[in-house]
Write a structure and sequence with these properties.
heterodimer; A: alpha/beta; GMP Synthetase, Chain A, domain 3; 4-stranded mixed sheet; 4 helices; 7 strands; 24% strand; B: mainly alpha; 60% helix
Chain lengths: 157, 282
């Protein structure tokens, strides 16, 4: 029988279907006792509309895997950070053409100065930010000056 | 066309999510945003503390809800697609904060009201948002200046709330701080770009600050937020206005439920569908 942790960890993220919720660090804890499973997840952003979908998917998969009692808890604290994206998750992001996050920028002067984001396609560090935000709250839009391809970047957060 | 294609129903496909189908639509499956969070009020909390917590959460939730709505109104009207995406994302973050805070307010007041009851079925005088968030932006310069003031103020406020005695409010604040830092940075970059830009953009940016300043008095800016705003205004080669605060009406401001004319129009748009169909689910 597949373990509860493996089953919960296989749930894909609705916004990054190539990555699982374990890859993204959204899955915080899985506890199993006498066939009952308690899963703890955390939202990426306060307004993340995918939480209900993730919780429903977790219940469906765990019940199908034979766990009768499934409870999904949400945890707000400590808040999610891109540091929780696993090395595997970062690799999958890059393979999907999305530049993974670097180190979170320090808060200091009036405007944050982001570090260079290498192009996920050709690797060139010569890229520029087109927009601070992209299709979802957690990404920014960039363009590579070398290969000219636009790409998304998961913001340091 | 195969049979399965001919039976394809676009509407059904938006709501009917199957296990192997990763398609999923915004607008379905909304649940209590604090579902699963331990929301029990601390043991020994007395009724006046619970009422004060409810008031705190309501005021901060209303700020986010009304401002989010104002930002959403810029969608399809922004000067560039990239800015529109940015504003929609900022509005989504604030809507998320509003949902969490209104839900918490409802739990603390103990009258069995959830986030929807509080957002859609209260009248204008029951809203506790500051008047700044109701303001109609005359142009993009006002939009960015207002976002700068709002996010600098709210960030400083939420930095302090991370130490709130209520663990749920403290956790909501800790999440929001990261979002607000990014919003403030986005707004500051624009204010500096416009202020330190052409003569025309400079004049527009200064006019925006001048127009907004009477509403800033109501915010009770702390030293951190005031210093930050001064630094950005200086970097943008703009002048900090000295206009006096917008006067209270019979001693009352937004936090007391007294609002500007703009508020009624926002609520009409925000609440009309929910009030016409109070039992609808989506």
């Amino acid at each position: 029988m597949v373990s509860a942790r493996e089953t919960a960890g296989s749930v894909p993220d609705p916004e990054f279907p190539a990555l699982t919720i374990a890859d993204l660090g959204i899955l915080r804890d899985v506890r199993e006792a006498d066939g009952a499973v308690t899963v703890t997840i955390t939202p990426t952003y306060s307004g993340c509309p995918a939480m209900a979908e993730i919780a429903a998917d977790l219940r469906r998969r765990l019940e199908r895997a034979g766990f009768r009692e499934v409870a999904v808890r949400t945890e707000l604290s400590p808040p999610w950070t891109t540091d929780w994206i696993t090395p595997d998750g970062r690799r999958k992001l890059a393979e999907a053409g999305i530049a993974p996050p670097g180190q979170p920028a320090a808060r200091g002067g009036p405007v944050l100065v982001p570090l260079a984001v290498p192009c996920p396609r050709c690797g060139s560090p010569d890229t520029r930010e087109l927009s601070r935000f992209s299709g979802t709250a957690c990404k920014a839009l960039y363009q590579c000056q070398a290969c000219r391809e636009p790409f998304e970047h998961v913001k340091e957060y | 066309m195969s049979e399965s294609e001919s039976e394809f129903d676009a509407y059904l496909s938006l709501t009917d999510v199957t296990e192997d189908d990763h398609r999923w639509a915004f607008g379905t499956g909304f649940a209590d945003p604090l579902a699963g969070v331990d929301v029990t009020l601390q043991a020994g909390v007395n009724p006046s503390d619970a009422a004060a917590l409810a008031e705190r959460c309501l005021a901060l939730g209303d700020d986010a809800l009304i401002y989010s709505h104002r930002l959403q109104q810029w969608v399809t009207r922004a000067p560039e697609l990239e800015e529109e995406t940015a504003l929609a994302n900022i509005a989504l973050d604030l809507l998320g904060q509003a949902r969490l805070l209104l839900t918490r307010a409802g739990q603390a007041e103990g009258k069995n009201r959830d986030e929807d009851q509080l957002a859609f079925f209260r009248d204008e005088r029951e809203f506790r948002n500051v008047r700044l968030v109701e303001h109609v932006d005359a142009d993009f310069a006002e939009l960015t200046a207002r976002l700068l003031v709002f996010s600098a103020w709210r960030l400083a406020l939420f930095d302090r709330l991370t130490a709130d005695p209520d663990p749920v409010l403290a956790a909501i604040a800790a999440k929001a701080v990261k979002e607000l830092t990014y919003h403030r940075d986005y707004a500051a970059a624009w204010v500096i770009r416009l202020g330190d830009g052409t003569d025309y953009s400079h004049a527009k940016a200064q006019a925006a600050l001048d127009a907004l300043w009477p509403l800033v008095g109501e915010l009770d800016l702390d030293a951190d937020a005031a210093d930050y705003l001064d630094a950005v205004i200086a970097e943008a080669t703009l002048t900090r206005p000295s206009a006096p605060p917008l006067a209270p009406v019979a001693g009352k401001t937004g936090r007391d439920g007294t609002h500007t004319e703009a508020m009624g129009y926002i609520l009409a748009e925000l609440q009309s569908v929910a009030r016409a169909n109070p039992d609808a689910t989506w």
